[in-house]
Amino acid sequence: MKIYRSAPCYAAIVISVAAMAYPGQAHANSWTPVTGESAIELPAPSRPSGIFSAALRCSEQRWSLDLTLEPGREAPAAMPNAVLTVGEQTFNAVGQAATGGISLPLARLAIGPLKGGIQLKVDFPGADPALGAAFSLRGSKAAIEAAEPLCSKRDMTGYDQIVLSPYSSYLLEASELRKDEIKVFKQATASVPKLAAGVTVLGGDRQLLFVETCGSTWYYGASGCNLAGFARSSPEGQWTLIYDAEGADLYQDNGTSTDGWPNLIALPKKGGGDEIVWAWNGNEYAAAQPDLVGSVPAAQSAGSGQ
């Protein structure tokens, strides 16, 4: 009697049971977006030491790499810092204990290399027993770009968003102020950028005019836009360039200011990443430390409009 015909069925049952017991091993061999969520399942790790699976998640515009530890393995009591390596680039992350594993907050600067790299290595130097793994980055770009639009916005209650509109009454002034930028953009892309503008009125008749120029991720970076800011001391004064950076959702912090100029907080237009705080340095706005959005400011808005 031949019994080997039943072997394939038996093998299928074994594989199915294993997949239910260890769901991370059933992952595809590339990064897989979770339907309807700003989350991505990574392929099973290679050369793992204590790490069973991983997922990249975005919430309130902040990315985290969540590591599930092998069954029976617990997160270190004294959490060692993690080192993430993609090609020649390395990023440090402070691990946080999470249910079943460790969560690593990621800086926005790490997202670009993750999209374009070949392999991600995660190490915890000094961990005893050893802790680390490597993950293929196959399909990471498409998966991250599918998850980015689903990432929830940060709670900016207490901050005033600088509203930009393509129908602003300041659009003609904005076009004149950015005419050189528009000319260079046309030459580089053979297309016409889209403009939007908005004005914020500060104390003492001072005004801030912000002009957004959009139209190309190749030209402007991930946001596809540039955001420039101009200031003048009175409605009759001349506009002076005081802010120039990649496109962002910009907020005014009226509770923190320098010489009457409020701090500005720039958040990524899409996906996750660090906020950047811009502070007045006496002549213009300059980038300060990222991730300084803390307590809600108590001061009242000085007023804003289009």
Fold and architecture overview:
With 306 residues, the protein is of the alpha+beta class. It has helices spanning 7-21, 111-116, 140-147, 171-177, 179-189, 217-220, and strands at 32-33, 39-41, 46-49, 51-59, 62-69, 82-86, 89-93, 96-98, 101-106, 119-123, 132-136, 160-161, 194-201, 207-214, 225-232, 240-246, 249-258, 261-267, 276-280, 285-290, 304-305. The model is unreliable at 1-26 and 290-305 (pLDDT under 50).
Describe this structure in a few short sentences.
This protein is an alpha+beta fold and 306 residues long. The protein contains 6 helices and 21 strands.
In total, how many beta strands?
A: 21
Distance from N terminus to C terminus (CA atoms, Å) equals 86 Å
Order of helices and strands: HEEEEEEEEEHEEHEHHEEHEEEEEEE
Main β-sheet: number of strands, strand sense, barrel status? 6 strands, antiparallel
Would you tell me the overall average pLDDT?
Answer: 83
Strand order of the largest sheet: 1-2-4-5-9-8
Task: Describe the global form.
Answer: elongated
Structural class, judged by helices and strands? alpha+beta
Beta-strand residue fraction = 35-45%
Rounded radius of gyration (Å): 25 Å
Q: How would you classify the quaternary structure?
A: single chain
Query: What percent of the residues sit in helical stretches (DSSP H or I)?
Result: 10-25%
Taking pLDDT < 50 over at least 5 consecutive residues as the criterion, the unreliable ranges are: 1-26, 290-305
- How many helical elements? 6
Number of domains: 2
